Amino acid sequence: MTIATKKQYESLTEEQAITYAKNLNLFSDDAQLTCSEIGDGNLNYVFHIKDLRSGKGIILKQALPYAKVVGESWPLTLKRALIEANALKKHGEFAAGLVPEVYAIDEELAITVMEDLSHLTIAREGLIRLESYPKLAADIGKYLAQTLFHTSDFALHPFEKKKLVSEYSNPELCKITEDLIFTDPFFDHETNDFEPSLRVEVEALWNNELLKLEVAKLKKSFLTEAEALLHGDLHTGSIFASETETKVIDPEFAFYGPIGFDVGLFLANLIVQTVTREGEQREVILRHIEQTWEVFSANFSELWENKAVESYKDTKGFKDYILDKIFQDALGFAGCELIRRTIGLAHVKDLDGIKEDEKRILSKKQALRIGELLLLKRESISSIQAVIVLLEELQK
Ligand SMILES: Nc1ncnc2c1ncn2[C@@H]1O[C@H](COP(=O)(O)OP(=O)(O)O)[C@@H](O)[C@H]1O
Ligand SMILES: CSC[C@H]1O[C@H](OP(=O)(O)O)[C@H](O)[C@@H]1O
Fold it and tell me: What residue stretches are annotated with the Aminoglycoside phosphotransferase domain (predicted)?
């Protein structure tokens, strides 16, 4: 692997990105490179470098020393770039083909050079356009099982696992999640952002002590349960897809946390799609939700049977206890994600992009209602089929 270095951090211009790319020895000498900054996320620059002669491309992702969505008033560690690059590589060891290849890491400039996936579509964008992704749910179910099982105590020697916990300590990025997912949306906080016509529903959330108790329990779990190396922000904007391929990008929020968090975030972002769709199109997403959990649990179970190093692995009931815990945690985390994506700081285009006011508000109310029910009822929802029934009933 090339480790490119330069003395001091500076954020690159497109021109500088081309010069940088030339020095990586990834293109031939006569390459004719072009560059455009295509970052549409909340935090970083993403340069797409392409050789006009061969058509070959690479991606150069650079962290900024602040959160791009807010500006320099919100400083943010550059170390997240190294965490992201290392997490891509670590997850790639277990979920080969489901993450981009990392070509080079530059710690000084907070740059990751990686495989160009621009032949694929960001799943959120494609799902909004009703594109069909027949492999998405099974691939993500497998990605979740492989990455989460193999980085957990069930697969690793405790020394190795604790070494990874410390390598992936990511306090600043975790704090964003602790605030934006688990705290601010449940209080009258300045970061919240919602239409006045949602105020009644939002105030009802703020005043719902039982709901807040569930969120508090989940926040505690996020703060304290170092179960596996999570992606940490597995929404549909962090997944590239086509009819035949799925690739997970952007694990800069990676850290050791509760397994259900990654599962729940992905499920929540599928659920967001169900509130915007009707009829057969909604059915497609309901099947994705079902399949994600089924593939995840089957794959996780199989890994457990064949590879677990835990002394209690064959103790009757232990594997089921773990899977039940992951399921219930996932439903709770999904509830938090649904609520934060509706009324918190970082919204989703699936909902905000609905032009017709009445339809948008109705969809947002449904998202809030589903979030609330998942949080309150998660302990009594015993299967993914029961989740589907709940979603169908709520959306009749
Ligand atoms: N490997 C890649 N290949 C092609 N495009 C990419 C790649 N990585 C990121 N992008 C583009 O850049 C955008 C932002 O990337 P992302 O990693 O989500 O940034 P952020 O961390 O700022 O959210 C993506 O939505 C996608 O359009
Ligand atoms: C101020 S960060 C808000 C939000 O942005 C991150 O998403 P992404 O990097 O994919 O744009 C993450 O979801 C954070 O919660």
Answer: 35-286
